[in-house]
Amino acid sequence: MSASTLSASTLTGVFTAEAFAAHVASLPPLPQWWLDRKRAAFDRFASLPMPAENDEKWRFSNRSTLTLDGFQLPTNGASAASLHAPIGIKKAAKLVFANGRLATRELLSADLAKRGVIVDTLQNALHQHGDLVREHLLAQPPKLGSAKFAALHEAFLTDGAFISVPKGVEVELPIGVFSYAAGAGAAVFPHTLVIAGDNSKLTVVEYFGSSVDTDAHFAVGANDLYASHGAQLTYVGKQDWSLSTLSFQLNSTVVRRDARVQSLNLHLGARQARHESLSQLQAPGAFSEMLALTVAHDAQEFDQRTLQIHQAPNTKSDLLYKNALRDHAKTIFSGLIVVDPDAQKTDAYQSNRNLMLSDDAEANSLPGLEIQANDVRCT
User: Fold this and answer.
1) DSSP result, 271-314
2) Which of 139, 225, 247, 340 has its CA 20 to 30 A from that of 154?
3) DSSP3 helix / strand / coil % (the chain, rounded to 5)
4) Spans of the chain, pLDDT less than 70
């Protein structure tokens, strides 16, 4: 094998130009703007390098175990009967995906549907609510190191959840989204887009899991959470992939005037999992609470990267990440608070706490501040 061929294989693995062309050909008719974005994303993916040893955004990460080889793009989903929804609470609606395809669903009540609440697939939303999707889907560029994997996600994204709650509407029960990988070596790209209108209120509960606990999978998921003025949005995500899975999850939150977003992410599965969470407070009164709990054992590695950006005055963010480590497990937390020059009266907090239950475990914490305003409170 020539050096150039080896380099190309290393950069793309099984996600070649031919695989991308087959993926696009398998999709139903979709808007041209979205297909153009997917093609541009594949070009970015193919040209971007894998994480480098001297990349500060990958400090302490085990890059030697990152590989794009050995996986496959599944050509079908899984039967709904083989999947379960392990979050046993009553829900306003539910979407269950397997290998990026809708497997089953529970519809909204007639009352919520009449009031304009939407819980649907991204494929349907691209046609029926195209302007909303175009404005918010993957609207924030990756900033925390996984640009190559974010491009891969956009290129091969098949379907996902679209949730929209209009102005002034409160959804009392949570909305459930379940994403599964089925089949040995399956590569999946789950996505959830949530748009909370002015003064609306909702809770979204999301679960990621493998249909068979012993199968190895490759998962590159993402979500977009948008809270408009005065909205209250709660998001709970539970990651429980098989212990042989390589996982990336890229979360982006935008908080507008007097809105409140509370997110809690539970990390349990995967052999190696990287979670990147970006929160942007874009208008006065915005508040973002970022919570995470990780239970790591055996030789698991959990790599957590966060960014809190205060872009307007009188905003507040509060981050608390807790890790419990056993055996030879490893965690990395790298968090950065950025305060823009106009973001006076910012109140920002960040804490990472590690419970070491083994002498062989390893926890790394890298907090950071970039403050460009002079009237702030950051700790």
Assistant:
1) SEEEEEEEEEE-STT-EEEEEEEEEE-TT-EEEEEEEEEE-SSS
2) 340
3) 20, 40, 40
4) 1-10, 77, 79-81
